[in-house]
Here is the input.
Amino acid sequence: MLTRKLSRRARLACGCYTGHVIAGILSCLLCALWFLWPTMAKSEGQALYCIANAVNVRESPVDGYVLLRLDRGDLVLLQEEADGWCRIDRAGDIGWVKMDYLSDAAPDTQPSKATVTGGRLALRDEPDGKRTGWLKDGQAVEVLGERNGWARVRAGDTDGWADAAFLEALP
Here is the structure.
């Protein structure tokens, strides 16, 4: 009986029980950080880069009048963040941009090259938008950006959106 009490005290002294408690608390803190990380606000005045092409800067979030467009690599300053939208300042022009199109890391601004595969491919004014022309099978294009399975492409002096599934990257 005395050895049993000593061994419990020894276990408490060495931290075996407290180690489990501390591990549990750390686990809870890490889980909370994991879920809260994406919602942590960026700081006001922070420089952000546009990571897509032809991103609308709006007068107000969601469906506001389009004031101007950002290109991939454009640098803006964050003024405010609300509901997944950022109020930004670009050289004195103030407007709202969806947070999905901004990053604190500069994107690669070089357009990549691709070839149209699978036959004739529709060129559209926006992703899944109105058809404005056609791209031929095997035609080379520059990929200027991508969004939700669509690629912003340029073929000669024509540009628009094409289904990225029908483009094969060139080395």
Summary: The mean pLDDT is 80. Residues 7 and 13 are 10 Å apart (CA to CA). The radius of gyration is 26 Å.
